[in-house]
Design a protein that fits this description.
The structure holds two protein chains of two kinds. Chain A is α+β, with helices and mostly antiparallel strands. Chain A has 16 helices and 17 strands. In chain A, the strands form four sheets. In chain A, strands 1, 2, 6, 7, 8, 11, 12, 13, 14 and 15 form a ten-stranded mixed beta sheet that branches. In chain A, strands 5-4-16 form a three-stranded antiparallel beta sheet, with no helix packed on it. A two-stranded antiparallel ribbon of chain A has the order 3-17. In chain A, a hairpin with a 4-residue loop joins strand 14 and strand 15. Chain A is elongated and about 95 Å long. Chain B is an alpha/beta fold. Chain B has two domains: about 350 residues, Alpha-Beta Complex (Amidase signature (AS) enzymes), CATH 3.90.1300.10; about 80 residues, no CATH class. In chain B, about 40% of the residues lie in helices and about 15% in strands. Chain B is built from 15 helices and eleven strands. An eleven-stranded mixed beta sheet of chain B has the order 1-3-2-4-6-5-10-11-9-7-8, with helices on both faces. In chain B, strand 7, helix 8 and strand 8 form a beta-alpha-beta unit. In chain B, helix 7 runs antiparallel to helix 15, helix 9 crosses helix 11 and helix 9 packs across helix 12. Chain B is globular and about 70 Å long. Classes of the chains: A alpha+beta, B alpha/beta. Chains A and B meet through loops of A and helix 9 and helix 10 of B.
Chain lengths: ~500, ~500
């Protein structure tokens, strides 16, 4: 590792007991599953949640005599991510064997990359301007899963064995839980936008380890601790905060920190030491003799560079400038690539991109998780950008009310039928008929002498109490402006 | 000497294709020869009787329905027990894999099947191909048909004997440091190790991945050429396979051929009778028009230590998968995963395999890697350069295949280093990855028994066809390969 970053420092940590200043030194390691069709070294098509050991073959179960063959799609995605992170992709790289015995590791070694990873350097700049530098990214295969909670047996599921992972390792540039969270969020966005991974942490597609030590300002680094088993960004932040407090407490009470691996307990919000035996490994790396060293030539890199879409940070900046959107909306629109792409397409079709943003962030986001519609995520919503802009157009033109627009959009998603047909079928068109509206208004005024008196006394807001009953009588379809004008006119005409 | 000259694969396939012999008859005859000789020589670890007869019937049915016959139509062959044929036991002569039936078929085996060859079983070997005598088999040694008290060499012992004793015309071995060439020499037959990567390793149970090469035995060179041709060529399942088309055979003689004679291959310690046989062979080549040229391979003396670092390092890694979790024999131990691993590997591996796993683990360990494995890789590069330099001046290099004729079973089994030195002349070629053949080149008489001597002919990387051409010329000019051992299917003594 290189020396501490020279960028502006983040806020330090103040000891709650002594008031002393401390600085956290944090590095992050992330394992990310690549969304390739097949595994890294065989043709098995992995998907989460399949019956145990149903997605296996002689290669990924390490039958005697089999050989790995590199999946080029995995290398392509890995290189694309590396380039998106501004990293350097050297022309030559190779795989190595990393040895350890565990029942979920079929070969007794993991095919990984040791001293010639496919990528080094790069990084992510935080909002503060501080850069979190990447040391390296390498490509490796995932292990299977050992399941221990079935009586006295350990069961092994090898479906995940051989799924491609990229492991990214940062320099120890992170100085707080907030920075860790910001870095991870940005990394996840880039992974998603490049199409490299869905980063679904619940499915284990993104897993983090934290290396952390504390020091006094200006001091050299002290002994670091590795924290594993962090299944969400929230856990990463909580584990960092706990470790900062724990390590400072140990030092201030005259103790010493041991280099060790600790596990985060999400229920208690604390870390605890693993048995040292579990972390003492000599991996005996050596070059994988079954896979020749490989070259990543300029044209391969150019192709992957060309496949990188505009990244979220750039989009946020552009949305603010081009569409006049606030930072919150910009952030929400770029939280997922499908959302951002949908918005941009709708913005191109619509005269009112701001309305499109509102409709997406309110109405469409609300559809996700709605039991009736059954969409698990935004990408499943059965609407095209053109569908949304049509609805916006109808509302803008006054043909339907905003509420009617909501009903229409849901109906379009549910039935797949056109806006034109559904507006008629659901009778969503606004009532503009002055006669009908006047009749509803007259009914609403019956017995409302107090309101009439208030309006006449110069309190125009009192009128609002009458709008509800009129709209209710019209089934929500009366044009609100005409209703307001009619009520005013009728009240004025009263003695 | 006994029996008539046996039929080679080319002749047998020809008769079968013409309908003069059914594949069924060929398979049944081979199985009878197994019944007759296997108990005495311990050649097979698994005989696939049912599969062989079923395949034979399928071949006959295909022929009857007018399908073209493959070049190995109906030829019974034997596979080494470290090769995968779906459903047949491949146990690597190890207790840890006893009963293991491969769930898939090796690429090279499939190509043989597609050419009409009919595997009749899996042959005995040194456990996981580690050894030079068959004494490391967990299922007892194979015996040399020239003298049953002696080793046939190893590790591809059963396959060498299956051919030498006339059970099958072609058998496959694997050659990592000499495991086909040395037994070929000790059994008086031909054994050919192609250039590394010529034949896909997919389905060959790995010992030393950067050295392993599927290598055939046959009595005749034309059979070796045919079977190598059928098996070779790229394979999408093996990234280390050469990106070359199938082997193109060469016609011609050896007139004007420059034959390098490395002085390091004729050390003073070479027994006088072995040297005499090799000298006579060199004279034969000279008589055929070749030019003998003294050459030097100066790093050869480092080959054995280099090999035993590289091969054991790779073996320690390749054998890590035998952990009792997914297949093979498991010993439960005291309940923990660690103790299950320890108990399984303690009970499942023999002493030589354990020795090599320990060696390989050591040379890869943190703090020792540079001094051992890292240095061995550098010496390997120097050895390779020795050959490249020599081949700038000569077309092939020749020397004895083995520093001695077949030794007695038990003679070296307590001295691993003496056993390792059996490979001293084959290992440099393995480290360089170049093609080499062992051809029968004479006999020595020990205790009244005639024992064969082999000559190794090695060529530059990818010059497999040239090596075979030289062997064919030598074979045509001599009778050594036609001489049959006293124990032979053509007439057991």
């Amino acid at each position: 590792m290189s020396s501490p970053s020279t960028a502006p420092a983040a806020k330090g940590y103040v000891s709650p007991t002594t008031g002393a200043q401390w600085v956290a030194v944090i590095g992050l390691e992330c394992h990310v599953q690549l969304s390739t069709r097949t595994k890294l070294f065989c043709g098995c098509e992995y998907h989460f949640g399949a019956a145990p050991n149903s997605i296996t073959c002689p290669v990924c179960t390490a039958q005697p005599g089999v050989l790995p063959v590199l999946n080029r799609e995995a290398l392509a995605l890995a290189v694309r991510v590396a380039l998106a992170l501004g990293a350097n992709v050297p022309p030559k790289s190779k795989f190595d064997r990393k040895h350890y015995f565990y029942c979920d590791l079929p070969k007794g070694y993991q095919i990984s990359q040791y001293d010639q990873p496919f990528c080094n350097g790069g990084g992510i700049v935080l909002a503060s301007g501080r850069k979190i530098r990447l040391t390296r990214i390498h490509l490796e295969e995932d292990a299977g899963k050992a399941i221990h909670d079935r009586g006295d047996m350990t069961l092994v599921d090898l479906n995940r064995a051989g799924v491609p992972l990229i492991e990214s390792v940062t320099e120890a540039d992170v100085e707080s839980a907030e920075e860790a969270h910001e870095y991870l969020t940005a990394l996840k966005e880039i992974l998603q936008f490049t199409g490299a991974s869905d980063c679904d942490m619940e499915k284990g597609e993104l897993r983090c380890d934290v290396n952390i030590s504390m020091r006094k300002p200006g001091e050299p680094w002290r002994t670091k601790v590795e924290v594993k088993n962090l299944n969400s960004f929230r856990h990463v932040a909580a584990a960092i905060e706990h470790e900062m407090a724990r390590q400072v407490e140990v030092y201030e009470s005259g103790g010493a920190i041991r280099q060790e691996t600790r596990l985060f307990d999400p229920d208690k919000g604390v870390t605890r030491a693993m048995r040292s035996k579990e972390s003492a490994h000599d991996y005996r790396y050596f070059a994988e003799p079954d896979l020749p060293a490989f070259r990543i030539d300029a044209s391969f890199q150019d192709r992957e560079r060309g496949a990188i879409p505009e990244l979220p940070a750039a989009r946020r900046e552009r949305y603010a400038k081009q569409f006049g959107l606030g930072p919150k909306d910009c952030a929400a629109l770029t939280s997922q690539r499908v959302v951002a792409d949908f918005f941009e397409a709708a913005a191109r079709l619509s005269e009112r991109p701001k309305d499109a943003a509102n409709w997406i962030l309110n109405e469409m986001n609300r559809m996700v998780g709605d039991a009736e519609l059954g969409y698990a995520h935004f990408g499943e919503i059965a609407l095209k950008p053109h569908d949304l802009t049509q609805v916006i157009g109808l509302v803008t033109a006054g043909t339907i009310q905003t509420a009617g627009g909501r009903t229409l959009l849901r109906a379009m998603a549910r039935t797949g039928r056109s806006a034109k047909v559904l507006v008629v079928e659901l009778a969503l068109e606004q009532v503009q008929d002055a006669g009908a509206i006047e009749a509803w208004c007259r009914d609403a005024l019956v017995g409302k002498e107090k309101i009439v008196a208030d309006v006449k006394a110069g309190k125009p807001n009192a009128l609002n109490a009458l709008l509800g009953p009129v709209m209710k009588a019209s089934g929500g379809k009366a044009n609100a402006e005409i209703v307001r004008a009619t009520l005013q006119r009728l009240i004025d005409a009263l003695p | 000497m006994s029996g008539a000259p046996i039929e080679d694969a080319v002749a047998l396939a020809g008769r079968a294709a013409r309908g003069e012999l059914s594949a069924r008859q060929a398979a049944e005859a081979a199985l009878e020869r197994v019944d007759c000789l296997d108990r005495r020589l311990n050649v097979f670890l698994a005989v696939d009787r049912e599969g062989a007869l079923r395949r034979a019937d399928e071949l006959d049915a295909r022929r009857a329905s007018g399908h073209a016959s493959g070049p190995l139509h109906g030829v019974p062959i034997a596979l080494k027990a470290n090769m995968c044929l779906e459903g047949v036991e491949s146990n690597c002569a190890s207790k840890i894999l006893a009963g293991y039936r491969a769930p898939y078929t090796a690429t090279f085996v499939q190509r043989l099947l597609d050419a009409g060859a009919n595997p009749i079983g899996m042959t005995n070997m040194d456990e996981f191909a580690m050894g030079s005598s068959s004494e490391n088999s967990a299922f007892g040694p194979t015996r040399n048909p020239w003298d049953e008290t002696r080793t046939p060499g190893g590790s591809s012992s059963g396959s060498a004997v299956a051919v030498a004793a006339g059970i099958v015309p072609i058998a496959l071995g694997s050659d990592t440091g000499g495991s086909v060439r040395q037994p070929a020499a000790l059994c008086g037959i031909h054994g050919f190790k192609p250039t590394y990567g010529r034949i896909s390793r997919y389905g060959l149970i790995a010992f030393g991945s950067s050295l392993d090469q599927v290598s055939p035995f046959a009595r005749t060179v034309r059979d070796l050429e045919l079977v190598t041709h059928v098996m070779s060529g790229t394979d999408v399942r093996d990234s280390t396979c050469l990106d070359e088309p199938q082997l193109n055979l060469e016609d011609g003689d050896v007139r004007g051929l420059r034959v390098g004679v490395p002085k390091e291959y004729f050390p003073d310690s070479l027994p006088r009778d072995v040297r005499a046989a090799c000298d006579a062979a060199l004279a034969t080549l000279e008589r055929l028009g070749a030019v003998l040229v003294p050459v030097s391979l100066p790093h050869s003396r480092h080959a054995i230590p280099t090999y035993y670092v590289v091969a054991t390092a790779e073996a320690s890694s390749n054998l890590a998968r035998f952990d009792g979790v997914r297949y093979g024999t498991r010993s439960e131990g005291s309940g923990s995963l660690q103790s299950m691993y320890a108990a399984t590997r303690e009970a499942g591996f023999g002493p030589e395999v354990k020795r090599r796993i320990l060696l390989g683990t050591y040379v890869l360990s943190a703090g020792y890697y540079d001094a051992w494995y890292g240095r061995a890789l550098k010496v390997r590069a120097l050895l390779r350069r020795d050959f490249e330099t020599a081949f700038e001046d000569v077309d092939v290099v020749v020397g004895p295949t083995s520093p001695e004729a077949a030794f007695r079973l038990g003679e070296k089994s307590n001295d691993p280093v003496a056993m390792y030195l059996s490979d001293v002349l084959t290992v440099p070629v393995s480290l360089a990855g170049i093609p080499a053949i062992s051809v029968p080149c004479g006999f020595v008489t020990v205790d009244g028994k005639r024992l064969p001597v082999g000559l190794q002919i090695a060529g530059p990387s990818r010059a497999d066809a040239r090596v075979l051409r030289v062997a064919r010329a030598f074979e045509a000019a001599t009778d050594f390969a036609r001489e049959l051992p006293p124990i032979h299917a053509g007439g057991v003594a």
